[in-house]
Amino acid sequence: MTATTQGSAMKSKLLRWSNDFMYQAILNHAQKYDGKFLTCVKSTGIYCLPSCPARKPLLKNIRFLATEQEAIAEGFRICKRCRPDLFYRGESVDENLFIEMLARIRSCPSSFSRVSSLAKSGGISTTKLNELIRLHAHLSPADLLNRERIKAACSALTHSSQRILDVGLAVGFESEASFHRQFSAHMAMTPHAWRLLNSSSEFALKLPDDFTPDYAWRYHLRDKDSLSEHLDKTGFTKALWVNGYPVVIHLQIDGHTANCRWTLPEEFIANSEQPVGVEIHRQVMRLLGLNTDVLGFRSNARQNKHMARLIESTSAIYVPMTANPFESLVWAIIGQQINLTFAATLRQALIKLAGPVIGQDGFRIHPSAKEISELEPHQLTDIRFSRSKAQYLIGVAKAVVTGALDLDQLEQGSAVVAERKLCELKGIGPWTARYTLMRGMGFADCVPVGDSGLYAALQQFYQLDSRPSTAETEQLMKPFSPFRTQATTCLWESLRNKS
């Protein structure tokens, strides 16, 4: 059907509907009529979808038109709340609503003292707000506001000399006590300690009472002969990319404290004046999984029989992440359709091939996108990569280097957008994308469909006769929402506990 024919069909249908019928539809915010007609408000000069959440004018102030072209021709402007232009272009209204809402929060987090004020700014109900933010940020609206307030406070503490109390109030906290409590819970240190980060070569993190490092060390040392991570009696050693340079960190757990110290290479000191403490803190928090909402997960278990049964024989698991999203994506591509042992072997071979050497003893850092983008496929096939896997890995690295794929930006935005952008790349499917969202970006409600370990764990957990299909896996994991990343990790761990 051509645009002209489609427009004629809409006009014909519009003639059969009375103004009273269409007015009742917009009073009910009826989504099923979106695309069937437009509400054009004479007093404001805007045109809206029937489902627009804005307050409705009197019927006498409305014109009903069949198409967007008609509305524009009559001089009406796009409604900024329901965005009919996005609807007619086939873009997601909800997705854009979330992105715009996130931008508003980040521009002035103190503007939203309550969740209700955030809902009002978007012209939606608090129920819709909760659904929207759960879907895109994998957080509750209150948790999203807190996260963004803390991020704004971190920036202010780093780049200004404001009093700590003034910083807390400026980003939207109601009192100094509330600011200190929330900051310490999110950053594992006080605001004062954070402010000193960039003038030191070490820091200490206060660990939760139920934290144990065992799971994190097992995750980071999947390859027991790793060239880029090391664990001994003195602690955990790893090199991190900081401002484009490798920085070796050493982590030591002492009771409920994680002590981190680092050494900078001479070329870093000579060529960079940028402070490093804040960036090292961010990566260490990732390595230890300290951004995991274990308390929320376990609190939810009190009302959720599936969660309660899952955690009854499992200690608290803080989900460790890779130092940066690219490292996780590399691991996910390497691990496609092969077992863990062989994946670890390929990872070690890749690091030996392309990872820069740090120091005198052959210790290496995981290669960045730049090093991998400069490889030729044959160099990877020579170390037992399949040709397709070699092409996927180099292709992704080149996308990162050119800026076509901005992993850091995706990490700070919508999980829906991040998964879609990753899956647009050759060789990236749902499992690879969702694993990267879990371990590389920290999204809390991911199900890595296609994971054989998850299939086996679900079969065991639900006592099924056979392993579930992809569709069945999605269904079986629903009771664990909005904590499916933690639930997945616990299910993986249940296989190890049984063995």
From TrEMBL:
Q: This protein's superkingdom? A: Bacteria
Alphabetized, the UniProt keywords read:
Activator, DNA damage, DNA repair, DNA-binding, Metal-binding, Methyltransferase, Transcription, Transcription regulation, Transferase, Zinc
SMART domains in alphabetical order: ENDO3c, HTH_ARAC
Q: Where is the HTH araC/xylS-type domain?
A: 99-197
- The record's EC number reads 3.2.2.21
Reactions it catalyzes: Hydrolysis of alkylated DNA, releasing 3-methyladenine, 3-methylguanine, 7-methylguanine and 7-methyladenine
The scientific name of the source species is Limnobaculum parvum
The family database entries (CDD domains) matched by this protein are listed as:
ENDO3c
Q: Matching InterPro entries, A to Z?
A: Ada-like_dom_sf, Ada_DNA_repair_Zn-bd, Alkylbase_DNA_Glycosylase/TA, DNA_glycosylase, HhH-GPD_domain, Homeodomain-like_sf, HTH_AraC, HTH_AraC-typ_CS
Q: Which cofactor does it need?
A: Zn(2+)
Per UniProt, the enzyme's principal EC class comes to: hydrolase
Question: Which Gene Ontology BP terms does the record give?
Answer: base-excision repair, AP site formation; DNA alkylation repair; methylation
Q: What is this protein called?
A: DNA-3-methyladenine glycosylase II
Pfam families for the chain: Ada_Zn_binding (PF02805), HhH-GPD (PF00730), HTH_18 (PF12833)
Look up the record and report any one GO term of the cellular component aspect: cytoplasm
The terms under GO molecular function for this entry are: alkylated DNA binding; DNA-3-methyladenine glycosylase activity; DNA-7-methylguanine glycosylase activity; DNA-binding transcription factor activity; methyltransferase activity; sequence-specific DNA binding; zinc ion binding
